[in-house]
Amino acid sequence: PHAVVVAGARPNFIKVKPVLDALAADGVRTTLVHTGQHYDDAMSGVFFADLGLRPPDHHLEAGSGSHAVQTAAVMTAFEPLLGRLAPDVVVVVGDVNSTLACALVAAKANIRVAHVEAGLRSGDRTMPEEINRIVTDRLSDLLFAPSPEGVDHLLAEGARPETVHLVGNVMVDTLLACRERARARSTLADLGLQAGEYGLVTLHRPGNVDDPAVLDGLLAALGKVATRCRLVFPVHPRTASRLAGRLPDGVRPLGPLGYLDCVALQMAARLVLTDSGGVQEESTALGVPCLTLRENTERPITVTEGTNRVVGCSPAAVVAAAFEWLDEPPPPRCPALWDGKAGERISSVLVRSLDGRSRG
Ligand code: UD1
Ligand code: UDP
C-alpha cells in the first residue's frame, strides 16, 4: 500500500513524525508532501532537523495568504500531484488550512482520507480551525481520535462507528520520544533561566492577537503576572507583526523556538500561559500547570484529566488564575492512551483497512 502524508504548518510536522515512522515499520510506502503553509526556517526547517523528519518528497510552496487564497493554493498544487501519485490513502493531521485543502482534493479524487486528530470541537465557529475540523472530519473515511470526547463528537455528527478509532495522541508520541533529548539541551542555561523560576507564554490565535484591544489586555495581564514570575515569550510570526515592541517589563521576547528548545522550556517552566492547542496537550503530558488564554478549548481532556485551566482573555481573570496557580499548582496527571503509541495504533488500523480493500 501507498500513503500520502500531508504536513504544512508547525504543529503538523510534529504530528506526522510518529505516523510516518509507524507506517514505515509496517511496510507501508509513504510519500511526504509539504504544502508550504509555513516556510520560515524557524517555523518549518528546524522541525525537520530536530525531529529527524526526512525531507519532503514534494513541496507545494503554497505560502501565506487569506484563508481562500491559501486554501486554494494548496488545493491547486495538490490536485495534479495526487493524480500522478494515485495513493491508496491520504493522511492529513490537525486542523490547519492545509489539512482541509488536501482532504477536500483527495475526497473529490475518490481517494480515501484518514484524519489524525479527528473529533476535536471547540464549539466556536469563529475559529478558522473549527471550520477546518468539521469539514475535514465529514470528508474523512478513517477518523483517528486522540481522546474519548472526540469519538463522542464524531458519532453525534453521524460518522459511521466503524470509521472511528480511538488511538491516543500523536503529539504526545513525539513529545515522549524527544523528552530526554530536550532535557539534555542547554536551552535554559543559554537563556540564563533556572528550572521552575519562569513562566512560558505562547500566543498566536487570531482572536487574541489580531484585535489590538484584546492583545493589549493580555499584555497588561502578562505584565502583572511577571511581577511574581518572569516570563519568556517565543513569538509566532503572526504575533510579531502585532507586538511592535509593546511587551511589558519582565516579559522577554524570543524568536519562534525549535521543537527541542520549546519542549525544554515547557518541561522546566513553573507555569505555561498559552492559546496553542499543542501546548495545552504537552503541558498536560509533562505535568506542568497551564492556563489557556481562550474562552473555550477543543481539548477539554487537558482540563478534566490534566493540568490545564481555560481562563478566558479578561486580564483580571488571567492574573487571578496565574497567582492562584503560582501559589498552588495543580497535581500532574495524564489522560489514558497518551502513552507514545498512537502512531502505531493508527498504522495498524490503516494497514488493516488498506489490506481489506486490496483483497476486496
Ligand atoms: C496556522 C493555523 C493555526 C495553527 C498555526 C500553528 C490555519 C487557519 N491556521 O496559523 O491553526 O495553530 O498555524 O502555528 O491554518 N508567517 C511567516 N512565516 C511563516 C509562516 C507564516 O512569517 O513561515 C506569517 C505570515 O505573515 C502569515 C502569518 O504568519 O500571513 C499567518 O500564517 P498562517 O499559516 O496563515 O496562519 P497561522 O497564524 O500561522
Ligand atoms: N512550538 C515550538 N516553538 C515555539 C512554539 C511552539 O516548537 O516557539 C511547538 C509546541 O511545543 C508544539 C507546537 O509547536 O509542539 C504547537 O504549535 P502551535 O502552537 O504553533 O500550533 P497549534 O498547536 O496551536 O495549532
TrEMBL record:
It comes from the Bacteria. Residues 25-350 form the UDP-N-acetylglucosamine 2-epimerase domain. Keywords: Isomerase. InterPro entries: UDP_GlcNAc_Epimerase_2_dom, WecB-like. One of its GO terms (molecular function) is isomerase activity. Gene3D superfamilies: Glycogen Phosphorylase B. Pfam families: Epimerase_2 (PF02350). PANTHER family: UDP-N-ACETYLGLUCOSAMINE 2-EPIMERASE. This is UDP-N-acetylglucosamine 2-epimerase. It comes from Parafrankia colletiae.
